[in-house]
């Protein structure tokens, strides 16, 4: 996940300034489609992730503006964390 976040930052988020939320979301959809369908991945022998699936050619499209949250999600407090059992 950390590697993906770094790639997302270097190849999408910090590449340019976006003039609107709609433009930013469209650019994210384009990046994710490129990342999954065309960009070579060293862990996959230079193939894109879509090469690991059969019969799928999905594409990501963000055509609706994000919906506002009705409530703000609460963060998990340290004392709420469940201790693993042995």
Automatic annotation (TrEMBL):
Q: Which Pfam families match?
A: rve_3 (PF13683)
Integrase catalytic domain residues: 1-49
Query: InterPro entries under this entry?
Result: Integrase_cat-core, RNaseH-like_sf, RNaseH_sf
Which is one GO molecular function term here?
Answer: nucleic acid binding
Which GO annotations describe the biological process of this protein? DNA integration
Q: Which domain of life is it from?
A: Bacteria
Name listed for the protein in its UniProt record: Integrase catalytic domain-containing protein
Q: Which organism is it from?
A: Streptomyces fulvorobeus
